[in-house]
Design goal:
- This protein folds into three domains: 2-109 and 127-144 and 394-414, Aminopeptidase (3-Layer(aba) Sandwich), CATH 3.40.630; 158-244 and 310-393, Aminopeptidase; 246-307, Methane Monooxygenase Hydroxylase, Chain G, domain 1, CATH 1.20.58.
- The protein has helices at residues 8-15, 27-35, 82-98, 129-137, 168-173, 177-188, 201-215, 222-232, 245-272, 277-307, 341-355, 377-384, 403-414; strands spanning 2-5, 39-47, 50-62, 66-71, 101-106, 111-114, 141-142, 157-162, 192-195, 236-244, 310-321, 324-332, 360-365, 389-393, 397-400.
- It has 415 residues and is α+β, with helices and mostly antiparallel strands.
- The relative contact order is 0.16.
- It has an eight-stranded mixed sheet with strand order 6-14-8-13-12-11-10-9. A seven-stranded mixed sheet has the order 1-2-3-4-5-15-7, sandwiched between helices.
Length: 415
Amino acid sequence: MKLKSIDPDLYESCLEKYPYQSFLHSSYAGNKLKHNGWNVEYLGYFNHDDCVACCLCATFPLMKVFRYAYIPRGMVIDYKDKALLQAFVRDIKKYLKTKNVVFLEIDPNIPYQQRDKDGQIVENGLNNFQIVSNLEACGFEHLEMSQGYNPNQQCRWVSGIDLVDRTKDEIFAEFSYMTRQDIRTSKKYQVQIRELNKDELYILDEMEKQTSEHQGFEASSLSYYQELYEFYQDHVKTLYAYLDIELYKNTIQSELEKIEKSIASTKAFLEKNPNSTKKMKKLKTDEEYHQSLLKKINNMEDLKRKYGNEVPLACCLFIEYGKEIVYLIGASNYDARMFKGPYAIQWTMIQQAIDNGYSYYNFYGISGYFQPGQEGYGVFDYKRGYNAIVSEYIGNFILPVKEKTYALYKQLKSA
């Protein structure tokens, strides 16, 4: 076996064979790391001409004279092949020593144990405990597997939909009742969807800032979204949902005309049959609906004064890479939440994923907490409405490369 530096194109071709490939493995992610000051190298492990493992290895200065190494989402390798894994790690460690690296960190996107959509462990389900043991046998320290959001680490908890051999009708039928209704509501109001170009990312930025103020988190910057477009190129897409006031007005007016005819017809019937309980109930229901439509007309005028003919509802940014689509960033207009813009976007994108042959729709980060009132429960519950199954990754691992220096580093860090 031989470890050697390879070019990005060869590295990308090696990635194609790997079942757990992530956009963070990609050379596009490597270019973004370079931009942020990392030294990036693509390493291949060859058995003659056959690439049996590879990785994107990024290093960054540590304690002025040393370096820290990071392999985003772990090495591209068969982690169950213990002999291969040990040989690769041994040679990576030797190589990193020559680069003055103190320690290497990895965070493989490999499921730890099978969970259901509620986050509960599946009895007798699949697990990858052996992979954890194999990594520890190679000298890796397994860091504490935590819950919650950590801005200094990649997501350890995600949820998503398996799209393999599934039709749109099958996928839709497995959504919760409320999620299906919210999607139908967005259709009823004729919510429009279009893709933003890079010059329009200010729309996402403005909406994300509003969302962060409402929900109490720190929003990303406009430059961050622009960098994603710069480095991921045609693998990034932002969908924008909006309400066309004129279309909405026509829809409400049509509904109003139908309900007024129904009310007139029911009143005419009751004049001849005043004791009809069924028709009296219908009249009451129709009149309540009529009042709600009148309120919507008044609300429509307020919306038009505030936004003009186009009311922004939601923006979602996606990364399309390998076999999956990743829902990376989402923002919505809280004041216009009744139109269900986020649901319109998600269902549009899920259908596109099926049409384009993707095997997994990754709703991405959740907190790992699954009870009401706990951190991130609302985000988890929203994604669960799409029947998104929870995945718990195996966590972060540290490989000491210069053992004595690493021990000193830990002492200094804990002091």
